[in-house]
Amino acid sequence: MTDEHDRAPDASISRRTTDASDLPVVAFAPDLMDRSRIAAAVPGVEFARSTGALASIPARLVLLDLSRPGALEAIATVTAPVVGFGSHVDDDLLAAARAAGCDEVLPRSRFFRQLDRYA
Q1: What is the model's pTM?
Q2: In sequence order, which ranges of the chain are alpha helices (DSSP H)?
Q3: Within 10 A of 56 (CB to CB), how many other CB atoms are there?
Q4: Which domains does the chain have, with CATH numbers?
Q5: Which helix (H) or strand (E) covers residue 65, if one does?
Q6: What are the mean pLDDT values of the chain's consecutive 10-residue runs (119 residues total)?
Q7: Does the CA dihedral 70-72-76-79 come out positive or negative?
Q8: Are the CB atoms for 96 and 118 separated by under 8 Å?
Q9: Pick from 35, 85, 88, 109: most CB atoms within 10 A?
């Protein structure tokens, strides 16, 4: 049996975009270490300065640190698929992200292990 997180992004993410292949991946990850890891694995990634800015930045995919204030509320404002990541012990946060419409929700460790999927 295949775990839903082991599939290619196209198979597990089903958001409402038309032809977004020319658009960048956008990330909201204020932690500098997270930003450097994302930038190294996803060439051309653009970083949003706030969760509020996510709604106005055209993107083919949004990578979202769920632990940040406003992250859950931002999910509904984004038109691109959203991949959220958070602490593996924060079950309530991960469940809330799914309920808010996050297309893919991953524990931090798994997210960073498979970052190259989003390049």
Answers
A1: 0.83
A2: 9-12, 32-41, 71-75, 91-99, 108-113
A3: 9
A4: 22-118 (3.40.50.2300)
A5: strand 61-65
A6: 39 49 93 97 96 94 97 96 96 96 97 95
A7: positive
A8: no
A9: 85
